[in-house]
Design goal:
The protein is α+β, with helices and mostly antiparallel strands. It has 2 domains: about 190 residues, Glutaredoxin; about 120 residues, NADH Oxidase, CATH 3.40.109. It contains 11 helices and 10 strands. The strands form 3 sheets. Strands 4-3-5-6 form a 4-stranded mixed beta sheet, sandwiched between helices. Helix 1 crosses helix 4. It binds flavin mononucleotide (FMN).
Length: about 350
């Protein structure tokens, strides 16, 4: 085999291997990068932190963003934010010079204190594997310019990508959202439709129920009845209709429908409590017909002991998740802010 042929064969193979590594990576901690002195740095060193990863340049119209980034860093550093700066000369050659020169410029002009890594490519065949992975996580394709940013949550997964022009204030709002345990719990909840074959501990189900009955109800009437199925024999009859979860929460409300709202509020409380305990849930109305009429569900139905004039309104499948569903899109235009004139 001649040398040129070997080169043609080996280079694409190596590139494919790098691509596969980037795609198979689970989170940002699977990557290593080089610091300004050329030393390897494992990103797993940043486990548990929130990361803002940015490709920068010193001669760009956006270069003053260094000031905003440093302000952000100083504000949230003690709460666990790290900003990882990767100078990149790919856009208009606006990051010339050595990494030492770049670092000197940034400390002299913007007093940056966050770590600045070695120069890298973010697009093309020499793109750093970290960037190949980052881009694949949230769509958006190639990096368009300097000062594109990726926000990474404490679990090492990409939360969002921001383009160069996006306001730092928008990033700050997302950082605050993730740092607030209540808000991050709300944002992390997803309907889970695949569960481990492991019943939930009774104590955890009790905690979830407590959260449920602490929901508001009209005049505190608490017109609801909740049945939590732990009996695995009963579950076996209905499991396949309820996402094969090991346990089921059945929420009943008066048949006249006047208290459906109260019953709905308690359901959300229970799902958020479950989320905070590492459990997954899926609220379902789909199986109600089966559960209330099908012969196969008779023993299950009889066990519920639903009060007279109450109906089974919905069920919540609950268990340890065996999947991590992505967030479904939300339509922010449904909300309108009526401002003072
Ligand atoms: C009243 C109601 C009924 C639902 N019924 C079902 C159902 O029968 N089966 C199911 O898989 N998901 C059901 N869902 C879950 C929704 O599909 C889910 O909440 C929605 O797609 C948004 O996804 P997310 O919960 O992951 O944010 C129901 C949700 C609500 C609020």
């Amino acid at each position: 085999m001649d040398k040129i042929y070997m080169k043609r064969l080996i280079v694409p193979c190596l590139l494919t291997m790098v691509g596969v590594l980037s795609i198979s990576a689970q989170n940002v901690y699977d990557f290593k990068v080089k610091d300004g002195a050329g030393q390897e740095v494992l990103l797993s060193n940043y486990k548990g932190k929130m990361l803002l990863i940015v490709n920068t340049a010193t001669r760009c119209g956006f270069t003053p963003q260094y000031k905003d980034l440093e302000t952000l860093y100083e504000k949230y550093r003690n709460d666990g934010l790290e900003i990882l700066d990767f100078p990149c000369n790919q856009f208009g050659q606006q990051a010339p010079g050595t990494i030492e020169e770049i670092h000197q410029f940034c400390t002299a002009n913007f007093n940056i204190q966050f770590p600045q890594f070695d120069k890298i490519d973010v697009n093309g065949r020499n793109a750093a594997p970290l960037y190949t992975w980052l881009k694949a996580q949230v769509g958006g394709g190639d990096i368009k310019w300097n000062f594109t940013k990726f926000l990474i949550g404490r679990d090492g997964k990409v939360i969002k990508r921001y383009e160069s022009r996006d306001e730092v204030a928008a990033i700050e709002a997302d950082i605050q959202m993730d740092m607030n345990p209540v808000l991050s719990n709300i944002m992390a909840r997803r309907s889970v439709r695949k569960y481990l074959d492991k019943p939930v501990e009774h104590e955890k189900l009790e905690t979830v129920a407590q959260a449920g009955i602490n929901a508001p109800s009209a005049m505190n009437r608490q017109n609801w009845a909740v049945r939590i199925i732990e009996d695995q024999k009963l579950m076996a009859d209905v499991k396949d209709m309820c996402r094969n979860a090991p346990n089921l929460i059945c929420v009943c409300a008066p048949s006249n429908g006047r208290f459906d709202l109260d019953a709905g509020l308690m359901g959300q409380n229970m799902m958020l409590a479950a989320q905070s305990l590492g459990l997954g849930t899926c609220i379902q109305t789909g199986p109600i017909r089966f559960l209330t009429t099908d012969e196969k569900a008779k023993a299950f139905r009889d066990s519920l002991d639903i009060p007279e004039d109450y109906k089974l309104l919905y069920v919540i499948a609950i268990g340890y998740p065996d999947e991590q569903p992505a967030a479904k899109p939300r339509d922010a235009s449904k909300v309108k802010y009526i401002l003072g004139r």
